[in-house]
Amino acid sequence: MGLEEEIEEIREEIRTTPYNKSTEAHIGRLKAKLAEKKEELERRQQSSGGGGGYAVEKHGDATVALVGFPSVGKSTLLNALTNAESETGSYEFTTLDVNPGMLQYNGANVQLLDVPGLIEGAAAGRGGGKAVLSVVRSADLVLFLLSPFEIQQYDRLREELRANKVRLDREPPRVSVTRKGKGGIEVTASVDLALDEETIKGVLRENGYVNADVTIGERVGVDRLIDGVMDNREYIPSIVAVNKADLIDPSYLDTVNEELRERDLDPDEVTFISAEERKGLDALKRRLWDELGLIRVYMDKPGRGVDREEPLVLRAGSTVEAACRKLGGRFRERLRFARVTGPSADHERQQVGDDHVLEDEDVLKIVLRR
Ligand SMILES: Nc1nc2c(ncn2[C@@H]2O[C@H](COP(=O)(O)OP(=O)(O)OP(=O)(O)O)[C@@H](O)[C@H]2O)c(=O)[nH]1
Ligand SMILES: [Mg+2]
Prior knowledge:
Elements: H1 3-16, H2 21-47, E1 62-67, H3 74-81, E2 99-105, E3 108-114, H4 129-137, E4 141-146, H5 153-163, E5 166-168, E6 175-179, E7 185-189, H6 197-206, E8 212-216, H7 222-230, E9 234-236, E10 238-242, H8 253-262, E11 271-272, H9 281-292, E12 294-301, E13 305-315, H10 320-327, H11 329-334, E14 335-341, E15 350-352, E16 362-368
Parallel strand pairs: 1-3, 1-4, 4-10, 5-9, 7-8, 10-11, 12-16
Antiparallel strand pairs: 2-3, 6-8, 12-13, 14-15, 14-16
Helix pairs in contact: 1-2, 2-6, 2-7, 6-7
The structure holds guanosine-5'-triphosphate and magnesium ion.
């Protein structure tokens, strides 16, 4: 029996087995087995060529993947937001490759990747969608672009990403597995478990563990347990923009909002834009900035004063040490102390160590050892 048939058979069994306490462990094992088989299939497909992958390098302070069906206006938006010249057309599949563009905002360089239309079966390796999805996996944020007339495409896009091991808008599961030499599988939980210990052990065994310590810190279901054990999932936040807002008739707006709510999307959290008429773009940029969680740190440079033109851009929660690392090796090695003025400081020119957590619009002076 071929791998594909095996996968289909396991799927069928999961579908037809009623879920209850007595079948839970069995279903858990099946799901774990399914996850394993799917990865094996993927490895084979990759090694048999046709993979290739996109050579889009990571540039800038952060990367946003622009995801949407053909003709929703991805290229038009990329051109409106960035310095890229992406081909646009009123026919589908204009974009056959991934187009990068750089958005300058608040002194940060945000790389935007225009990802061609995700199509039926992309995650299963057909239609070149696979390589495209691998680009999405490396992004810091997914921007879903929807047409007001096809909001339901959102479901398909999320499904495709999920099938490609992207987990949107979720923290990684609090599950950790450590292999050990003997003693079988031992489960330690800091919360009330939703699953039987046998189910958990079954999932682990199905993933090739014989002796291991498993620590669980949240009420995981089977799927999330498998995610935690497999540990090759990407956890990426996402936001939604509805393009072609210029085409929404006022009487149709309620329908759009209703379609959004049906998908647990608060219309107030969705950014309505017109890429073509360049409307709503400032709000979208602000939203991107907020979701990326970047901060600006203005460097106070010896003899040159505070540089407010080109801030050092860091992730929220970064320390003085992280700032030094981004500035270059010698800063990290020779840091004596730092002085901070601004939101994270108790007073002007506060002297801090390398573990001080910086905030947006801090002014930072690094004092080096000689
Ligand atoms: N009315 C209106 N038309 C738009 C808007 N944005 C894009 N379009 C039009 O929609 C069509 C498709 O736009 P593209 O930017 O090529 O779409 P795409 O998502 O890049 O499509 P693919 O590359 O095929 O995946 C073009 O004719 C655009 O001019 C908009 O905000 N309003
Ligand atoms: Mg395009």
